[in-house]
Amino acid sequence: MRSIAIALVTMLAAACGAPSPPVTLRGDWPPEVRDYDEVVRDLTRATVLHAQYQEVLELSATLKTPEWFAARAIKDAETRGLVEPARSQRLVQAQADAAGPYEVELLVTTWDRRENDLNRGKKSVWRVVLIDDAGNEIEPIEILKDKRPAFTIRAEFPALGDFATAYVARFPRARAVLGPSVKQVRLRMTSPRGGVEVAWAAPP
C-alpha cells in the first residue's frame, strides 16, 4: 500500500505542474458541439508509473461524456458524407450510446507486456475503478480490448502509442458519475507495483 500511496502522490504532484482543462461533467446532451479534436484533447488525461528506476505503466484515459459522443458522431457523419435522414439517425444512435454504461477509453503501455492484461477481469494484474464525486469506488462492468485497426483507433484517440493496447472500460450507471452538481470524476489503476490516478474536473 505504501508504494501505491507514493506513486499517487508523485502523479498528483506532476499533475499540478501541468493543470488539465476543466470539462463539462453535467451529463446532458450538448446544445452545441465543438470540433472533435478539441473535445478528445480536453477529455484525455495521461500519466506514468515508475518503480525502481523503471517505467511500469503509461496510461492515457479519455472519458466519454455526452459531448464526446456528439462530437464523434458529427465527425463520423462528415467523414462518411452522410446526409439526411442518415445524419440525424447517426446522432440519435450517439445519444443512445451516451445513455448506456459510462465509458472510458484506456490506452495502456506496460514495460512487461504480460502485465498489459486489463481484459482478464478479476485475474488482471490491475484493478481499475472510477471514483465519483462523493469518493465512491465503482467497479467496471467489463474491460474489453478495442480490436479495431490501430489506424482507426488513432484517428479517434491520437495518444495511441506504437506499443499501447487500447481498451474500452464500461462502468454501471448505478451512481451518478456525471450530473449537474458533479465537480470531479477520477479513474484509478492499481497493482502490486503501485498505482496511478487521473481526474476530470468541472469548471469552478
Write a structural description.
With 204 residues, this protein is α+β, with helices and mostly antiparallel strands. The protein has five helices and nine strands, in the order ααββααββββαβββ. It has a single domain, classed as Sandwich (Immunoglobulin-like), CATH 2.60.40. The radius of gyration is 17 Å and the shape is globular. The two termini are 32 Å apart. The model is unreliable at 1-17 (pLDDT under 50).
Count of alpha and pi helical runs: 5
Give the SSE string.
Answer: HHEEHHEEEEHEEE
CATH hierarchy, class: Mainly Beta
* Cα distance spanning the termini: 32 Å
**Shape-level CATH architecture:** Sandwich
Task: Please give the domain count.
Answer: 1
The count of strands amounts to: 9
Mean pLDDT equals 91
Could you tell me the CATH topology label.
Answer: Immunoglobulin-like
What quaternary form is this?
single chain
The strand line-up of the biggest sheet is 1-2-3-7-6
Stretches with pLDDT under 50, minimum 5 residues: 1-17
- Radius of gyration using CA atoms only: 17 Å
Relevant CATH superfamily: Immunoglobulins
What is the 3D shape?
Answer: globular
Element layout with pairings:
Layout: H1 2-17, H2 36-42, E1 44-51, E2 54-63, H3 66-80, H4 86-98, E3 102-110, E4 127-131, E5 137-138, E6 142-145, H5 150-156, E7 165-171, E8 184-191, E9 194-201
Antiparallel strand pairs: 1-2, 2-3, 3-7, 4-5, 4-8, 6-7, 8-9
Helix pairs in contact: 3-4
